[in-house]
Amino acid sequence: MLNNIKEWLKNNVDEERYYHLLGSEIAAKELAERFGVDANRAALAALVHDCAKSLPYEELIKIINENNIVVSEMEIKSRKPLHAPVSSFLAQSKFGIQDQEILDSIRYHTIGRVNMSLFEKVVFLADKIEINTRDKEFRKRIYNVLDATNNIDEALLICYEITIKSLLDRRFFIDPETIKVWNDFIVNIYK
After folding, report:
1. Which of 113, 118, 120, 124 is nearest to 150 (CA)?
2. Mean of the per-residue pLDDT values for the chain?
3. How far, CA to CA in Å, does 177 sit from each of 41, 45, 81?
4. Considering its fold, how many domains does the chain have in total?
């Protein structure tokens, strides 16, 4: 199954995205082992989390509409996170993945959601810190936090902080769900 998925990815995403997916697979396995979740399932989720990333916006909308995929109005307005629900759909329809936790981790790997499972957090973070395409200084900062606290929520809070600052600096739209997740982490980490 993995070989077929990798072959499909190699033919359907651009080269940099393919290397990102391979790096995410490795990072997810490492994080899963560190935090005690199923490493093979996490690696599979991370491997396919961006399988729809190379599709044009019009194709994403077409797939969403034809398959009644639930997306928020905010996701449609901001466009960038639309590949996540479509990737989850393709994981199920193209690759036969039926594991709901894997599908949810793919679905929520961009914006996240309040009360993410530990499994979802592992896949989310793996996407942000994989070694093939992500910034080395950012990765170092995340690993420093993980090594000091072993708290994945602290690491995720840094991801959200950097994302929100970047969106503000560029005067980009911020999905309200991102703010909800940020606030939830703040409340739970500093209670």
Report:
1. 118
2. 95
3. 26, 22, 12
4. 1
